[in-house]
Design brief:
This protein is α/β, with parallel strands linked by helices. Helices cover 56% and strands 13% of the residues. An eight-stranded mixed beta sheet has the order 3-2-1-4-5-6-7-8, with helices on both faces.
């Protein structure tokens, strides 16, 4: 299978490198383009055999599966560019949450799917989210699942839950790393514990906690119960978190949904502006 990547920015590059490092794909199976050609050229220099092009159309012509790793407002221009070079047997995969599958199916002759990756996929870990359009066959679904399985735990979701699922899987590492950084900074401010030592302690704690959860030793709730000795220090501190943090993630989800709707409307405007003009 020949796999294309239009866009080799942060997430596009993460996917390419992870697929190569996991041996899911050989560099020779990858065809990539980027608005700034020097970025994709550097990938080809790092991974001998990877095909780098200055043109998106070359990627479209040479790939069985094409990942669109671009920003929401870039979609219309890219689609206008590549659509004449695509055909019904190809699969186009968007990794951009505000772009709906139904809209892509209207604008492209191909089969369409959506994958939301995570930075954790760069170490072949964490989850990825998958959705497929109604043109996709079972073979398409299996092929996409098997590819993502090399770098993640693929989870099939309903597209209506894209945003909140992305909050957890894709944005979650940033949210939790912010909270952990605040914990580290507080340890340094309040007690004088050197920041490098606090960071090492916190990092080892997080890795160990992930192992406990992944091995089904504890749920999040039972983990709290196990650590929390009645009348102890942990219980006293948890009361502070309950008092200060309850509701903060409601606000977080509301804000991500607000921005998602704003981006989705921007996509709709670019996709259908010409239709409105013609009317």
């Amino acid at each position: 299978m020949q796999v294309g990547f239009i866009g080799t920015g942060s997430m596009g590059r993460i996917l390419i490198e992870s697929f190569i490092e996991s041996k899911a794909l050989l560099p020779s199976q990858i065809h990539a383009s980027n608005r700034t050609f020097s970025k994709v050229k550097s990938l080809a220099q790092t991974y001998t055999g990877l095909h780098a092009y200055p043109s998106n159309t070359r990627v479209a012509q040479r790939s069985d599966l094409v990942f669109l790793c671009i920003k929401p407002l870039e979609f219309k221009n890219v689609i206008d560019d590549i659509a004449p070079y695509l055909h019904e047997k190809q699969l186009v995969v968007s990794i951009t949450s505000p772009v709906d599958i139904k809209d892509l199916q209207e604008l492209l002759p191909t089969k369409v799917a959506k994958v939301i990756p995570s930075i954790t996929n760069s170490v072949q870990s964490g989850a990825s989210l998958i959705m497929c359009g109604d043109r996709c066959t079972e073979e398409d679904r299996d092929a996409l699942h098997q590819l993502m399985e090399k770098v993640s735990e693929p989870l099939w979701i309903d597209e209506q839950y894209t945003r909140v699922s992305s909050d957890i899987v894709s944005c979650g590492p940033a949210f939790l790393s912010f909270l952990l950084q605040e914990f580290i900074n507080a340890a340094e401010r309040v007690t004088g514990l050197p920041k490098p030592q606090a960071t090492a302690l916190a990092s080892h704690m997080l890795v160990g906690m992930a192992e406990l959860i992944s091995r089904d030793r504890f749920t999040l709730e039972t983990l709290q119960e196990k650590v929390c000795v009645p009348g102890g220090v942990t219980g006293a501190a948890l009361k502070v978190l309950e008092r200060e943090c309850v509701g903060v993630f409601d606000k977080l989800v509301l804000e991500t949904h607000r921005k998602f709707k704003e981006d989705a409307q921007g996509v709709q405007d670019t996709f259908y502006e010409q239709n409105r003009v013609n009317k």
